[in-house]
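This part of the workshop introduces the protein records we will be handling. A learned vocabulary of local backbone shapes supplies the integers on the structure line. Getting from the letters to the tokens is the skill we practise here. As an example, a complete record with its sequence and its structure tokens follows.
=====
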Amino acid sequence: MGKPDKDALVGVGLLLLAFSILPILDGIAKIMGERFHPMHITWGRYVFNMLVLLPIVAPRFGWRMFAPPRLGLQVIRGACLLAATMLFFTALMYLTMAETLALAFVYPLIVTIAAPWVLGERLSAAKLVAAVVGLCGAILIIRPGAAVFQPASLLAFSTAFVFSVYIMLTRKLAGLAPHLQSLFFTAFVGTVVMTPIAPFVWNHLSWLDWLGFAAIGTIAATGHLIILRAYERAPASVLAPLGYFEIVSTVALGWLLFDDLPDAWTWAGIVVIVASGIFVTVWTSQREKAAEAPPPVTRTDGQAAAG
């Protein structure tokens, strides 16, 4: 067995670092939600995100940072991420961090089901079953009709649907614009949309509040920049299943900050969603690698030989 690729190990480390940092953003947003409207928090997230990215992106792209290829689709993509952010922050006001993120993490399963019609990708029976099972995991968390049912669960679940559209648009735009340019443009779209809205939900900001908004935007920018670096060092097939580590770090942070731990039904739902998502991710990755592999050299006697 060969030694692990050093670049791949660095990529894995970077990704785990990013998914350890990003839940801090959610924790700050939940704390600030006690005093500020979710739209106000969303404004702060995007404005400071854009300001952090601006000195990084401007020297590389100049004015092109405001006009990426397929501008119309880029705007819709940015609007989808903005809508998902607002839904997520609103759900955070009422649910635990773990519940909110777990329901949002249904998005890969929704993409799996929708991809054949939207992206022309093949949907195998195994992937369909895994996706349906994962959605059942979401039902375990939401528990409609039960005494513990929280209407805000539907907001977190809606986040997954909106974010799945964002992911599918990202796939459609893949290769047309550098990732850094697209990352900045989504922050720019959010800033442009939210700035005229912010005065209607504005609350007085102390210097500590400004610091909180700056922290949210900075963590968002830093976390996603680290993710980009991770995917430059390691293949997606290695990194994609590790995205669910964010749920682990979110549960830990929710416990530390708010003394929130999922109950048994929520744990069961989280396990089902994570297991289904990892299965779909690994299955898809293996199929893509098999499709990219060169055909074996065939001998005259019909036995395959190594090329």
Remarks:
- The CA atoms of residues 18 and 224 lie 7 Å apart.
